[in-house]
Amino acid sequence: MKKLLVALLIAFLLIPSSANALFGISRYKDYKVEKNISESIVAGETDTIVVSFKNPTPSIGTLIAVLNVEEGSGNHPVWLGDFKVRAELSSTSLYEPNLSNSYSTECMELENGTFYCFNLSEMNCKPVGKRFMVCFPILKPEGSFIVLPGSKNTLTFYVTFNPALIPSNYSFKVTLYNDILIPLIEDPVSNSTIANRKTFFNASLSDTLLWITTSEDKNLSVDVTLFQYFVEKTFVPKGLTPIKFVGIEANNTKSITSTEIWVYYNESEIPSWVDENSLRLYHYDTSSNNPDEWKWKLLESGVNTRENYVWGKTNHLSLFGIFGSPSMKKEVVYVSGPTIYLPGKTIYKNVTRNVTVSAKAVCGNGFCEGGETCSNCPEDCKCPAGYECKDNVCIEIKPEIVPKATPTKPKVTPSTTPSSPITGLVYFVTSPTGIGIIVSLVLLIILITIFFPKYTKRMK
Amino acid sequence: MRRGLLAFGIIFLLTISIASAGFLTYYGKVEGIAKVKGPRFYASCTSVDSNIVYKLLINDNSTGDCTPREFTDGSLKWFLSDSLGISSFYPANYSFYVKAKADKPGQILHLELWITDKEGNKKEGGLICDANINITTNETFSSYSAYCMSNSLTLNENDRIAWIMTGGAFTGKYYIDVSHGNTRIEVDKA
After folding, report:
1. How many CA atoms lie within 13 A of A390 on its CB side?
2. Which of A10, A17, A26 sits opposite B16 (nearest CB)?
3. CA–CA min distance A267, chain B (Å)
4. Are A152 and A109 in contact (CB under 8 A)?
């Protein structure tokens, strides 16, 4: 019985480790720089940057590479055309029959010195507002930037320096993403927090305001990043339209007990078919070891349509997204339409047509959809703690020193309500780390009881 | 002892599996710095047109191994590049390096750098800059250098560069060794 228990314990312990090794936190593993840019280059020449990595997962992966070039002294900014960049991906299966896929693409210089190395012509891109573009990859059996399942990969960048490039030092930064977002604006902010009080962090460059509460006094540096692209269709929760993505990271997350996030939007960023009242803040949950299980989760959040911001409350920092649901949507429906007669003998009856119909909101599906409010569907559009629902709108119960903010340039006064330490404890206990530590402690006690019975008896 | 080790191993595995959880937005970064030097133009052995015009190679010092180019005063030696594919060029210093000898010491070799059109014809106002070299050796080849400077240039993408060598009104012969990148132009910002 004791042996069986030990075997079960070992298996239980090995599963997370092996799952981690198999799937990884990132899809790709064994990333290695095979060759960096040469230290000395003559203008007009072509140099290479070579990296290798493995895709150990059983699924096809996507790949986006961004190359950023900057001139060192700042006196000679990089101009469009100073460099030409081509990327070549060679992906070979690790297993028989060792299939391989090789693809080369000219990287697109969308801004001066910033190259996006994936083929936009093979992406289905739609603008969302003025600053964003939603792109879905059109995966083809061959010829796309596809990382084969179970493969070793070599990615080579061919950087050609324009002969007329002004001699100087140039820095090169290649960032490889198998995730889906590319930073647009990076906005580092810092402040000193006082234990259990909300501290304001103004990241208005990236349209974001934060109130962070820590369990102890801290000098906190927070990196807020506004993102630009995403490409994986599965990345978007079903039925929702993405509006904006913000990544928030801090130098010391352990002491953070709660965070209130306001993300401002411009009405032009909201597609006409999206109901502005349905905008909510979601958090990208990557707590699972299996990336296939990563998903967006609705935060305790709401929207202020008068001042154009979406707010949300959370106890940890990660990637956040504003999503909205359509008020109207286009559907392919079967209607008993007209019978169409074409020349000859062809007759079409009850033709299927694309028609615009009202979106049907489903109360209880976890998404605050168009037509749903905190009054008629509190399950999906519930008001957060400290707010009450009045006339379909969540209104703050205890008004604090409310920041007066405008959508373009928010001016904010931080509020200073202390949060409960019990809330912090609950947050910790329910977090993946907290659960992990509790499980570890329980297992440790069981192991000591099994392997050192004499010691435990002596304790008694 | 064995049980203790086993227990330690299991606890170690558990710790690793929990500690490795995290959030990544990217999986790889490469950062590097390159010092970029101005382009180099190499006089080559490859003839373009009879024995007057030869190729001026851009950043390619595989100029070949050939007998020295020779010419007497009054005739020319041209070294013509391919189309540059650029629309402008910054104010620059041009350093001429020439491996040469002459019949008589003290013969002056005149060097000119021109912008030409697609066909290799000098463009009006296309003189970039010029310089003279005093050839002091008549038996062995020596390396000589000269410098000239130019303001910024406006070009058509099909424009080419011609490096033209002429004698300085002496009747003696000039001998230029273009093998192995010995005779070249190096460019740096002014």
Report:
1. 6
2. A17
3. 28
4. no
Judging contacts by C-beta atoms under 8 Å, the chain A residues touching residue B61 are none
Across chain A, how many H-helices and E-strands are there? 4, 31
Q: What is the ipTM of this complex?
A: 0.77
Tally Cβ neighbours within 10 Å of residue A159: 25
Residue A38: CB atoms within 10 Å: 15
- Reply yes or no on whether the pLDDT at A66 is more than 70: yes
Structure-model confidence comparison of residues B116 and A408, the more confident one: B116
Confidence of residue A184 (pLDDT cuts 50, 70, 90): confident
B84 close to A (CB below 8 A): yes
B48 and B80 Cβ atoms separated by less than 8 Å: yes
Distance (Å, whole) CA A142 – CA A134: 23
Residue A185 near residue A226, CB atoms below 8 Å: yes
B34 vs A41, A289, A436: nearest CB: A41
Which two structure tokens, joined as six digits, stand for A195? Answer: 């234990």
pLDDT, mean of residues B91-100 = 95
SS3 annotation, A422-440 = HHHHHHHHHCHHHHHHHHH
Which amino acid is residue B48, in one-letter code? V
Confidence band for A15, pLDDT divided at 50, 70 and 90: very low
Residue A44: which of B92, B78, B187 has the closest Cα?
B187
- What residues of chain B, 7 to 46, have a C-beta less than 8 Å from chain A? 7, 10-11, 13-18, 20-40
Secondary structure of residue A145 in the 3-state scheme: coil
Q: Identify whether A97 is preceded by a cis peptide bond (ω within 30 of 0).
A: yes
- Residue A252 tokens, joined: 């010391």
CB contact under 8 A, B15 and A440: yes
Distance of CA A319 to the CA centre of its chain: 5
- The residue of chain A nearest to residue B57, with distances taken between CA atoms, is A44
What is the C-alpha to C-alpha distance for residues B43 and B61, in angstroms, rounded to an integer? 9
Residues A361, A372 contacting (CB under 8 angstroms): yes
What span, in angstroms and rounded, lies between the C-alpha atoms of B70 and B141?
12
Asked if the Cβ–Cβ distance from A28 to B27 is below 8 Å, we say: yes
Q: Mind listing the pLDDT tens digit for each residue in A120-162?
A: 444 555 555 554 555 554 444 333 456 777 889 999 999 999 9
pTM of the model: 0.52
Q: Residue A3, Cα to own-chain centre: how many angstroms?
A: 44
Rounded CA separation A16/A18 (Å): 6
Backbone Cα Rg of chain A: 27
Could you report the per-residue pLDDT of A253-267, keeping only the tens digit for each? 888 999 999 999 988
Per-residue confidence band for A40, with pLDDT thresholds at 50, 70 and 90? very high
Identify residue A24 by its one-letter amino acid code: G
- Between CA A318 and CA A325, with CA A323 as vertex, the angle to 5 degrees is 160
Q: CB-based contact (8 Å) between A39 and chain B?
A: yes
Query: By the CB < 8 Å criterion, does B5 face chain A?
Result: no
Q: Assess contact for B59 and A42: CB atoms under 8 A.
A: yes
- Of residues A76, A405, A340, the one with CA closest to residue A208: A405
Cβ-proximal residues to A425 (8 Å cutoff; 6+ apart), any chain? none
